[in-house]
Amino acid sequence: MSVSAAPNTTSWRLARATAPAVRVLAGRRFFPLWAVVQHRGRVSGRELSVPVAVTVTPEVFVINLPWGARTNWVRNVQAAGSCTLRWKGRPHPADQPRIIDATAARPYYSRPVWAIARTLFPADAWLVLRRI
């Protein structure tokens, strides 16, 4: 499994164009497709946060990683072994981070959501976090 996918030009432009709105809306009560991962920098020790697209089940959070599994925030979460997701207006602690590929991620998505996610945010890695 390759975990260092570079975003294509379309997804990069979409991400840049929507970033201001996503930063404002992510984690809010009425925007369940977006969450904010709150984590601690493994080098700086600072509290950090990043907005993410999330799919949720009663057991796990599944986060699409269009820029790959080697981004700093993913490495921070893996190093700490846990993080908090602000989702639907509330904090949700999560642990046991693991990286999965598209085959393992597919069952977490409905057919239309999978098609949209694969078109707008193509990725070859997903982060799964157990809900505590």
TrEMBL record:
Gene3D superfamilies: Electron Transport, Fmn-binding Protein, Chain A (2.30.110.10). InterPro entries: Split_barrel_FMN-bd. This is Deazaflavin-dependent oxidoreductase (Nitroreductase family). It comes from Actinoplanes ianthinogenes.
